[in-house]
Amino acid sequence: MTPVTGRRPPLAGCRIIVSDDARSAEPPRDGVADGRSEGLIGVLTDAGAAVFRVAVPRGGARTSASLRSVVQRAARGGIDAVLFLAPTAPWLETAESTGALEAIRRRSDSGRLLLGALHREDADRLRLAGLTVMRTEGSSVTALARGVVAHYDSGTAALVTDAGRLEVRSGGVVVDERFIPLSRGATGVMEALFLAGGRVLSRAELGRGLPGGERSGRAVEVAVARLRESLDGIDLVQTVVKRGYRLAVTEQ
Fold this sequence. Notes:
alpha/beta; 4-stranded parallel beta sheet; 10 strands
């Protein structure tokens, strides 16, 4: 693999969801459109992120399939941040009804899933659900964008490993400022090992982190082999005989 040269974008490898009110998807009235989500998406995209807008249904409307899908992705590791311009209640209700809330809590606590809300009451609702919420200087889309860039540019959510400082993102890993893109399966393995923080994970535990879930031991071995190949000689994943695999976290 060819090393990345030059200054990497701060949000390289990040996939970010902007949760917006469904009314923002309607045609503008009197020629005036709400540009909040467009402005936020533009800033994040310029910083290197892949950004997707998800419309939250109005009160009383059925939860959309797209909302259920991104909630599940946020739980499994396919999303790095969710920014709420719309009320957070539908998102939380969907997370609870689909059984995803506990996994989302775990990821937000670890810093692997960044949550931010435009309005204070929505941020408070997330905190009441036991989720860690990004603190910003001010309540604006600009403050949200700056908070996300600062979080990832600073390496806040990183582990010190034998190979250097490691950050996991949904599109790959950052090792000592070098971004290495990874496949979905390889990223799933890294996500699980990262959240374990150096604890040994069995093949069954890692299998649940692969796309589709509950994969066989052989599938895990293939995924780990492909991950190691993609890391191009960077020794991050250690085999523990008869037990499984662990991240090469530096002993403190």
